[in-house]
Structure formats: structure tokens, C-alpha cells
């Protein structure tokens, strides 16, 4: 099964994985790539080189990398406002994304979409919470009708569980056994609101109650997540209907570019178990340093190229 | 065949001829075949592609969007046009956005069909013509069923293009027979069909040539039928001549035939069943007043329903909704 | 606790209950009243005396009677398209309702609202599925803020569980512990669609997943329902947050005035256990006949009065 | 104080003075105080009546409706006006229906506040001015924030009446200072305030008396601020005189001050940031062309944004949204 995570255009294997590199290295590299891309963006914003807004996925890189690994040509990802990691893990297209956020003609959507509205083969995103879930289900229905065995994946956040259309869609997806995988990234916060102030009852039970099996995991370990994601994608692909992969994780940066009012202590603790730390331990220091370097150099080239674009 | 059946036939033809066509909607499956029976028989013939849905208008629209993004041709039925409100987010922030916001890399040709309109005593939440709120949504075409337009032609146009469209079907048209122009006539009225490139045809109906008419009446859907009756009667009984102009597509508008009629008559009345104020006719009045500045004998008159809830009581409903009497009065004033 | 089911205006104790009558008689009478009102309406429709549409609650009378018994002055009911039973059990106002459906000035909403849009003290309805649930929750929030101990009750059908706003509201009601009772009348069908084609997963679990306790009962027995409803209303009134009373029942007539395409056999079986049969057995034949007569006479007067109205 | 703070102050005053006032919205609680910080401090001061909500726009509107039906005065904040779409059903089929459909037996005075508008590069779904779709909803007032109207006066009006209202706050106004008329002046412009009974005031701004102005510019919200700058500059630098007419309430409209200005100048330009076509200006053009038929020198010019998605890229966004340049060009044309 060929991964869509390596789209032909504008990728750089220093960012997406060197040929023959062990999977563990590749995963680290990809997460590092996403992390550094986001950090670079935040720096560029501060510099005033970008306009609009951005939502960094720092802390959640493992989800994107783990899930996209199991997707194949023909599969489709629908993502949300916090879509950079998903997009980069899927396509590797740092230049297209950066140019997009810079509002340049070379951007994946020619600067029209911006940070939250990305489109590329097998990938779309929209910054309106909730509505992408039925959109992804519609793609799943198309796949079902076509009988092509393709999977439709949609990423949502914990806060998005506030939107009613999510439940309308779970119901219909379950009734119609659609090949839909909902990946819910519970990063404990929705903008300024902690999950406890937004969500009553039990998160996993909400999906189950609509007849959608849920796989729940609290982890920032890309290996663990990848194993589980593989099983979930496989089950959906096998035609057994929709499933939910519920990942409890954490957003390490602020919501968008604005203030972060969360308890410092809480954030500090999460930095100790963030994906790069957790998985990075598995690499020896030299490999890590080399990969970090390669990513850094490649990203610097991307930034330089993007800056020079008209 | 009555219009509901013609439309059902059209949908059957679409399902038959185009494997990308998928019908979604509440209670559209057999044996019920939809609240207004338009889809009767279709789920039996096409069980995979004609799907009755839960009562989830938002998801119906949203799933249709996904189907369309994936290359299918979803046709979503809204049982009562009043519930288009629940699709508003999908229409405005998803369906009509995708193509342009993705710089043309995707298309989202969702067709939404909605049963609209009053005069049946269904009361405040089952009688509205809410399409005016969808006019001017960028990249959305709004098309209205009429007895002068063959739904087969209309749907062939929808399916031949990559754009989303809202198709409003006034309930009172369902039991009526289509009256398509035959040999340039609809009943006793001369019928011409004008059509700018890329637009759906606009039908013009009058007892005498436009140049001899005193007023142009611009109307769509069921009020167009009411207006045709008035136009016909006034011509026969009083030799008051008006030209009725009935577009299929009500937004964006093909102004050319309207301008041509209005330039000939020098006077315009617009008629719609939606509530008065920021309505279809407002844009018509705005555009025509500009494009024909100094050439109209009198201001454009916008006839619309009273801007309030539509009562259930027959007499109260009739007092709120535009009917033949208001149309006649407006035509007389405008002559 | 005074029941709001006896509004002062335009009630007739032959319809709502004679002073001093045993509760079992009163319940039978009220259900009989609702049943005969609905049957009368259907006859008037056939006659052409009414316009618009109507949704009869024949078969579900026990729900309305059981729940409203436990409501007090200040409590509020929000109902849906199938609201006649709820309204009559609440107010006894047959004339106001009939006049309304006849489109007369003396109607509860002067003929503006019609069958689905009723308003009277402590009662409202709206024919748009789902949206009444947050409306009722808002009334519950008002009661909570006012600290008046009043309960807000909303009646919905099984099919209405398709609407996303229901879940948005369950979540918020649970988060905020609103004094809201959702009565879900699962009558097995939504218009032409059987519950299995509309609902995936588990109905009760859907509420529970949002942290709203569910009391589930399959019954058409008004006594059983009343006991349970009393407990549920009591628990909500006690301030322990929202609750759901999920009643599995059956609609015996067609959806509105149109065709009924459901299996005849299924309907026939349900006629054997409809509320009047189940509870009627508890009354002796003479009492039943007398009550039936009184209801008939009173209703005939109502119809005659209504017909004569301008 | 900047407008965001003035508004916050107004809300604080409302909560303080009226126990029926309840604020609902996403992320409005402290310490965050809302995406645009308007409600900062309020949840600390009024923890029971200022409630941050889940991301559930439909239920926010629906719960507000219930509160209002029960006699409270809910003020619901919509984080981005783009998501008003998700409230459309509650606004159209619930909030604005109840009073009339219940024959006056209930009122539902919900106040919805929405942060609207672009020019910040937020892209297609966070930059829109969708209020045009709410104009002409029967029984809904739509009011736009401006720097010429004291929000205290505006909210006192809202809370003093029993009607629902949508209040749109253009994001670019938040960091600006109010410029209320002082001694009949706003900066170097003469300011007059007109107000028909039951309406909110309309502010008229011009360098010279209206009778000496060549054109009336009708605008609201942020474009009114842009227009004021153009009007001021053209007056100073080129002695081109225009009268800017800024209503607070944009639907239903108080036409009297507009008619008075237009009658004096004989020429009208309307300006809005919403997408062109079936927009606020359409109704204005329709009404003014009718009411001043034969009295205007030239047709009413409607200036609105290009009817497409609002791009994220700064330059592309500027090409789509109405800016000072278009306003200036329209004024020059209309003189
Ligand atoms: C319909 C809608 N309402 C509100 C917003 C504003 N908004 C953007 S992100 C966000 C929080 C989302 O939280 P969550 O779903 O947990 O995702 P996260 O940001 O944590 O990844 C909100 C409220 C939106 N984009 N869409
Ligand atoms: C938003 C909305 N969508 C669709 C309808 C049309 N409709 C009226 S009743 C009904 C079925 C409702 O089923 P259920 O909730 O089970 O209630 P029941 O009729 O069985 O009492 C439908 C689809 C509506 N009134 N509102
Ligand atoms: Mg989150
Ligand atoms: Mg039901």
C-alpha cells in the first residue's frame, strides 16, 4: 500500500524520510519537520512576514504522522483549522503550505485559502468547526458507492464535539456503514476553554452511543499511535463501517497567535511527554542531531524559497 | 402529467443516465416516496443511489457536499423549504465556498431541491419562501420551478455544470400540469424564450407583442402562474396588455430579457411570494432603475408578501401572501 | 402542588376530571378526551371543515396525561408538531385548540399558529424538529437563574433525535445542570421512516453519553408512566440537573393526514395494547361508559361552539 | 477608550442595571474574555449571568430564545459572524417567529452580537459580512456598530424593547476610538442626528450643509469609517462635497434621513462590505429609486464587495473587499 504521505510535488526527503531509513527515524523526522515548520511559522508571524492567523499543532505531531502512514492513494483526509501537521504528514509539501500562508501565488490554494483552507490531492480542510465531518462522510459514501475500498479520514478536536452536525453525521455514517474514520484529537482545550467546561458525559461513549466503535488512547507516542491507527484504518477499509480513533493529547502552544491563559504548570508537565521527547528517546543522539540538522537545513531552504516567491 | 410527476420523471432520467447522481432526503424512499411524492418509485429502481435519511438537514447538505467534492452529483431534497435554514451553514460556508477557496482545485456541484411556499394553511414554519435569503450567496445559483420550464432541461443544465444550485419548487405547482410553450404559444399568450449564454431560458408571455404592452411583470414560481392568469384575463377582458417575464434562474439573474421587456414597456412590476424587504424584487428594482435610468415611465414596483409570519388560518394566510388581487392591482397601477 | 393541567379558562371538568373523582377515572377521562378530540379533528378534516395539516397523537395519550399530572404552576412545556395531547392534558382547553385549528379568532393563537404552533400560559409548541429543545433548555436556565424551582419539559419524537441541536443542548443542559426534562416519545416511526432506518446505536445511550440520566420505559400504561414521570419530574425539580424520560410507545394513526404505509399487522397488534384499552380495563364497564358519554357530550358542545364561532 | 472597551463597558452596565441580562458565547469567560476581549472581566463580576459555552452556535441561539421567552434578556456573542449561519434556523424559525405566531402572547427579545468583516487576512470563513442574509427576516432588527453611535444608547434601546436584534460589530472597529458627535461636529465634519419615532439615530456627516453637497453616501459599520475619511479628504483637498449618512439600524431602515439627504443632493452611493447582489444597498436603491423617482440626477450606485470568497492573501483580500479607493471612485462618479 503506497502512502499518500509522499506526494510527488515539492517534497524533500530530508523532511519526509530518506529512502531506506528505518521507520523510527522516519517518524521522528516527520514529527520534527512538523514541529519546526510550526515554530518557524510562529516566528515569521512575529516578524510580520505573514498575515491572518495560524493554529500550530505543536505537541500533537504524533497523531498526524501516525494516521497518515496508513493511508493510501485514493484515501482522503479532511482537516480543520489546525491542519498544518495533517497536511505536511500527508503531502510533505512545506513550500506549498508556507507560500499559501504567506499569501503567495505558489501557495497550494494560491493564497486564497490561507492557513485553514487547504486543498491538495487527497486532502482538504475548512476552518468552520463541525461541518467537515459530514463532508468527509460524503466522501466516504462516494467511496462506498464506487466500491473502491478507499477510506475517508476526518480530524476534529475535542471542542468540535459541541457541534450538532457531528452527531447527525455519526448517526448516518453508522446507519450506512460508511468507510469513515473520525480522528478526534482531544488536546484538553478548545481555544480558552478546558474540556471539562465544554463537554458533559463521556467522550468515548458519545461515539459509541451512535453505533460507532471507538478506540481510545491517551498517548503522544507515535509508535503506539501508529500501531493503533493502522488497525483502525484497516478496520474501516475492510468495510465494517465508521470508527473513531480518540486520542487524548495536548496542545503545547497557544490556540492561535494570541495569549495563552492556561496554567503554566500544566503546560510545563506536558512538555515532558511531548511526541519528540517520547519518541526521540528511541533514537541515539547522533541520529537525532543529524535528522534535526537535515530538517533544519531543508526548512531553511523552504523559507528562503518561499520568501523569494512573488 | 402533473409537475410532481414530470419532476420525478426527470430525476429518474438523471439517475438512469448518470451514475454519479445520488438522491438524499427525508422520507424519500418507497413506498412513501417523499412528502410530495416526487421521488416515488425511485428508491425501488435505484436502491443504492436513492437514500432516505434521518431528520438531519445539516448532515444531508454536508454529506451531499462530500459526495459532490468526490465527483458525484447529489440531489438533496428538503421536505419543506422552511428547513433550508438548517442547511444554511453548509450552503454558505462549505458547498459554495470550496471551488473558489481552493482556487479551482475542487468543485462542489450539490443540487438542493426544496418544497416551498404557502397557500395551504400549513402555518408559520411550513409555508415560507425563504429563497430570498440565499440570493446573492456568492457562487450559488438559485433556480425556481415553473410550469413554463421543462424540468428535464433545467436538470440537464444542473448536471452538465460544476456549480451548486438551489432549486425551489413551490408546493402549489406539484399538482399542476406543465404548460410549456408550443408553437410559440402558452394557451392564448404569445411565448418567447430568451437565453443569454450560459443561462437558463427566460420565458416571456403576452397577448400582444412586447412593444404594445404597457408593463412588464417579472415573476417566478407559483406567483408567475398567478400573474399569467391575471395577464391573460386583463388582456381578454379589458385590453390591458402586460408582458410576463418568467426566469428559471432567479440568481444570478439573466437581466437581458428583463431589460429588453422593460425597455419596451417602460414600466416594471416584480412579483414574489417571499416576504417584502431585501427580496428578489429589491435587486431587480435596483438593477433596472440603474440600467434603465431615465427610460422608465414610473418606478419599479416590488410586490411581495407582508413581512410577518404566515398564518395558518386560511383567511389570515391569504391576507399575508401575495395573491392574484395584489398582482392585478399592481399591473393596473403600472399601466 | 397544583397541576397546571387545570388552567382556569375554557375547561370543562367532564373533559379534565370531575371534582373528587378517583385518579384512575380522571386519567381515563383525560386520555379519552384527547383520543376523541383527535378523532374528531380527523373527521372534521375529512369533512373539509379544517385546513392545513394535523398530527394526531392517537396511541400516545398516556404520555401526555402521565407527565402533565406532575407539573405545577410555573412549570413549562415545550411541544412539537404532535402537540394536541400535550396541550389538552396541560390546559384542558379543547375549544381554544379546536378554534385555533379551525383558524378562528378565538383560537389560542388567533388562528395564526394553527395545529403546530400553540401558546398558552406554561405551554408552547413549534413545528420545526429539534429547535424546541434548546428553547426549553433556555427556559430551564431562566428557572435556574430565578431559583424558582420550576421545571421545563420538552416533548420530542424518536425521529427528532436526528437533529444535531438536540445533542448540543443535552451537553449544555448537563454541563449547567439545568432543570430540564426531555420526554422522548419513541413511537417507532418518524413520518414514513421506521426507527431502525433513522437511528444507529442505542437510543438511551445517546442521552447517557452526554451525562443526562435516562429513564427508559416501554409502556402505554398511564399508571406506570405516571409513577415514573412523577419520579423524573421530582428529580429534575430537586435540582439534580436534566433528565430524560424515554417512552417506547406507538403511533396508531397516520403521520399527518396522509397515507399510512406501515404494515397493517403491526398496527393491529398495537391497537390491542393502546392506552385506553390498557387502563380502561381497570374501570368497570359502567364507569367507562359514563365517562365516555360525558366526554362525548362535552366534546360535541365544544365542536358546536367552535363551529359557530366567527 | 477603544470601541471594544466601550462595548464591554456597555455590557457591564447592562448586567449591572438589569438582572434579566445574561451573556452567552464561546470563550467569553475570564481570563480570556472572548476572542476580541469585549467581555473581559464580565464573567468575574457576574459569574452566574456570563456563561462561556461549548462550540454550539445553534444551541446558543436556541437557549437564548428560551431565556428570552422566559423574560430574560440574553445577549449571545458569535465569535465570528461567519458562524451566524449556524444560528439561521433559530433566528428565522424560532426567535423571530414566536411573538407573531403566538399572536403576541410571547416575546423573544434575543440580542445576538457578531464580530464581522474582513481586512485581517483571516480567510474565507472568518472574514465575512453575512448580515445581508438576515436583512428582511420578518420581525428581525439588524443594527450595525459604528464609531458615531454610542453603544450605550444602542443597547439601552435593545433592552428597552421586546424585539430580537442582530448587532454586527465589524472587527476593525474594535481597536478604534468612538467619535461621537460633539457640539454638532465629528472632527472637521458637521454632524447631525436624525431619528424617526421608534428608530435609532442616523448620523449625517458633511463638511458643508447637505444642500451644498453633490452626493449622499449611505454606509454603515467599518465602511462608514472608510467613507468618512474619503468624504473628509475630498472636501479638504478638492472641495468635492458629499454627505455621509450612517444609520445604526440597517433593517428595517429609517428611510426619512436618507430621503432627506438624497433629496438635497440628488445623487446616492451606498457602501457595504458584504458581497454584491441582493445586498443592503439593493433595497436602498430600490426604495430610493421609487421614493425619489424623477428627482435623482443619476441612478443609485451600490458599492459592495466582489461576490466571491474572501481570500486570505492580503493583496487578494484587498482586491475583493470594498476599500477607500472604490468609495472614492464612486463618489467622484456620482458628483
Ligand atoms: C463553527 C465554528 N465556531 C467557532 C469557531 C472558532 N474556533 C476556532 S478553533 C476553536 C476551538 C476548537 O477547539 P477544538 O475542536 O478542541 O480544536 P483545537 O483548537 O483544540 O485543535 C473555535 C471555537 C469556528 N472555527 N467554527
Ligand atoms: C427540521 C424539520 N425537518 C423535517 C420536518 C418534517 N417532519 C415533521 S414531523 C416529522 C417526523 C417526526 O418524527 P418524530 O420525531 O419521531 O415524531 P412523531 O411524528 O413520530 O411524533 C418530520 C420529518 C420538520 N417538521 N422539521
Ligand atoms: Mg481542543
Ligand atoms: Mg416518531
TrEMBL record, chains A, C:
Pfam families: E1_dh (PF00676). Residues 29-269 form the Dehydrogenase E1 component domain. Residues 1-23 are annotated as: Disordered. Its cofactor is thiamine diphosphate. GO terms for molecular function: magnesium ion binding; oxidoreductase activity, acting on the aldehyde or oxo group of donors, disulfide as acceptor. GO terms for biological process: pyruvate decarboxylation to acetyl-CoA. The keyword DNA-binding does not apply. Keywords: Oxidoreductase, Thiamine pyrophosphate. This is Dehydrogenase E1 component domain-containing protein.
Automatic annotation (TrEMBL), chains B, D:
InterPro entries: THDP-binding (IPR029061), Transketo_C/PFOR_II (IPR009014), Transketolase-like_Pyr-bd (IPR005475), Transketolase_C (IPR033248). Residues 1-176 form the Transketolase-like pyrimidine-binding domain. Keywords: Oxidoreductase, Pyruvate, Thiamine pyrophosphate. Its cofactor is thiamine diphosphate. Gene3D superfamilies: 3.40.50.920, 3.40.50.970. SMART domains: Transket_pyr (SM00861). GO terms for molecular function: magnesium ion binding; oxidoreductase activity. PANTHER family: PYRUVATE DEHYDROGENASE E1 COMPONENT BETA SUBUNIT, PYRUVATE DEHYDROGENASE E1 COMPONENT SUBUNIT BETA. This is Pyruvate dehydrogenase. It comes from Actinoplanes siamensis.
Amino acid at each position: 500500500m503506497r502512502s499518500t504521505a509522499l506526494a510527488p510535488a515539492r517534497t524533500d526527503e530530508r523532511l519526509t524520510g530518506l529512502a531506506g531509513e528505518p521507520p523510527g527515524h522516519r517518524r521522528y523526522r516527520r514529527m520534527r519537520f512538523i514541529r519546526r515548520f510550526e515554530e518557524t511559522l510562529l516566528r515569521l508571524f512575529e516578524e510580520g512576514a505573514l498575515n491572518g492567523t495560524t493554529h500550530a499543532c505543536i505537541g500533537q505531531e504524533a497523531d498526524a504522522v501516525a494516521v497518515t502512514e496508513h493511508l493510501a492513494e485514493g484515501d482522503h483526509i479532511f482537516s480543520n483549522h489546525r491542519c498544518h501537521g495533517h497536511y505536511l504528514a500527508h503531502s510533505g509539501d512545506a513550500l506549498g503550505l508556507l507560500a499559501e500562508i504567506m499569501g503567495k501565488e505558489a501557495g497550494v490554494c494560491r493564497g486564497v485559502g490561507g492557513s485553514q483552507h487547504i486543498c491538495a490531492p487527497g486532502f482538504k480542510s475548512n476552518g468552520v468547526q463541525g461541518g467537515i465531518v459530514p463532508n468527509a462522510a460524503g466522501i466516504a459514501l462516494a467511496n462506498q458507492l464506487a466500491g473502491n475500498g478507499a477510506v475517508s479520514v476526518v480530524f476534529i478536536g475535542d471542542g468540535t464535539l459541541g457541534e450538532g452536525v457531528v452527531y447527525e453525521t455519526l448517526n448516518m455514517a453508522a446507519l450506512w456503514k460508511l468507510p469513515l474514520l473520525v480522528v478526534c484529537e482531544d488536546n484538553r482545550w478548545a481555544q480558552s476553554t478546558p474540556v471539562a467546561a465544554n463537554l458533559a458525559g463521556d467522550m468515548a461513549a458519545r461515539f459509541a452511543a451512535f453505533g460507532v466503535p471507538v478506540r481510545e488512547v491517551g498517548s503522544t507516542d507515535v509508535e503506539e499511535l501508529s500501531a493503533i491507527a493502522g488497525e483502525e484504518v484497516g478496520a474501516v477499509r475492510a468495510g465494517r463501517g465508521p470508527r473513531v480513533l480518540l486520542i487524548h493529547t495536548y496542545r503545547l502552544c497557544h490556540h492561535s497567535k494570541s495569549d495563552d491563559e492556561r496554567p503554566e504548570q500544566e503546560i510545563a508537565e506536558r512538555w515532558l511527554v511531548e511526541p519528540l521527547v517520547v519518541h526521540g528517546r528511541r533514537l541515539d543522539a547522533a541520529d537525532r542531531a543529524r535528522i534535526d540538522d537535515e530538517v533544519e537545513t531543508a526548512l531553511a531552504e523552504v523559507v528562503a524559497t518561499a520568501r523569494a516567491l512573488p | 402529467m402533473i409537475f410532481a410527476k414530470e419532476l420525478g420523471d426527470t430525476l429518474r432520467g438523471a439517475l438512469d443516465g448518470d451514475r454519479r447522481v445520488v438522491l438524499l432526503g427525508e422520507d424519500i424512499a418507497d413506498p412513501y416516496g417523499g412528502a410530495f411524492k416526487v421521488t416515488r418509485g425511485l428508491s425501488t429502481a435505484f436502491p443504492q443511489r436513492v437514500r432516505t435519511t434521518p431528520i438531519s438537514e445539516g448532515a444531508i447538505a454536508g454529506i451531499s457536499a462530500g459526495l459532490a467534492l468526490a465527483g458525484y452529483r447529489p440531489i438533496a431534497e428538503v421536505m419543506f423549504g422552511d428547513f433550508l435554514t438548517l442547511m444554511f451553514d453548509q450552503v454558505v460556508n462549505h458547498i459554495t465556498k470550496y471551488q473558489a477557496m481552493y482556487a479551482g482545485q475542487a468543485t462542489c456541484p450539490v443540487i438542493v431541491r426544496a418544497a416551498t411556499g404557502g397557500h395551504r394553511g400549513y402555518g408559520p414554519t411550513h409555508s415560507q419562501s425563504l429563497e430570498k435569503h440565499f440570493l446573492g450567496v456568492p457562487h450559488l445559483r438559485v433556480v425556481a420551478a415553473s410550469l413554463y420550464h421543462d424540468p428535464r432541461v433545467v436538470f440537464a443544465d444542473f448536471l452538465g455544470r460544476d456549480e451548486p444550485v438551489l432549486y425551489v419548487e413551490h408546493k402549489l405547482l406539484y399538482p399542476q400540469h406543465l404548460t410549456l410553450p408550443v408553437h410559440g404559444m402558452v394557451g392564448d399568450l404569445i411565448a418567447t424564450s430568451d437565453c443569454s449564454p450560459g443561462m437558463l431560458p427566460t420565458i416571456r408571455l403576452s397577448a400582444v407583442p412586447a412593444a404594445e404592452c404597457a408593463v412588464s411583470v417579472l415573476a417566478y414560481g407559483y406567483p408567475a402562474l398567478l400573474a399569467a392568469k391575471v395577464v391573460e384575463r386583463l388582456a381578454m377582458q379589458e385590453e390591458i396588455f402586460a408582458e410576463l417575464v418568467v426566469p428559471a434562474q432567479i440568481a444570478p439573474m439573466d437581466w437581458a430579457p428583463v431589460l429588453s421587456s422593460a425597455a419596451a414597456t417602460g414600466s416594471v412590476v416584480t412579483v414574489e411570494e417571499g416576504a417584502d424587504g431585501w427580496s428578489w424584487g429589491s435587486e431587480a428594482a435596483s438593477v433596472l432603475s440603474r440600467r434603465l435610468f431615465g427610460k422608465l415611465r414610473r418606478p419599479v414596483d416590488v410586490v411581495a408578501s407582508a413581512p410577518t409570519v404566515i398564518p395558518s388560518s386560511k383567511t389570515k394566510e391569504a391576507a399575508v401572501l401575495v395573491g392574484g388581487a395584489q398582482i392585478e392591482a399592481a399591473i393596473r397601477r403600472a399601466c
